[in-house]
Give the backbone structure.
Amino acid sequence: MPTVRYAEAAEQRWRNGGGVTRELFRDERWRLSVATIATPGPFSVFPGLDRVFVVGRGVVELTVDGQRHRLTAGEMLGFTGEAAVSAVPQGAVTAVNVMTHRPGRARVRFGTWPESRAVAVVDPATGDAWLDVPGPDGPDGPDVPVIGPVVVVEEIS
């Protein structure tokens, strides 16, 4: 069960200067990152991708194609990479982003450590991630490195 430490991932400043992203994983099908949103501004456009945005800490208002959504820790929103998205954070916000290349899809949830195999698990408190998480009968588990709520990428199809 490989571990990706948030603190060791390279920080990438957003084009609009309103936040930073640390990419934890990327391959030809999907991408996993943790973003810190510090100031209001637009999101970048990612044609051909679908996105799942999960608030790890803080409160943010996202406007997606003109529709407003107020999200707090643990809440998530899915939208296309082509959507016009802007964010207004209330203080510093940390969010987990899962992006999949179409026609792929991600199944994501916020809650407890998974009881069965998962593609990835992210601790929103630290930004650390675990990849290829085995089920309870796997070679590494049932060790649970996080007690609190986590973002679970259950499947990439």
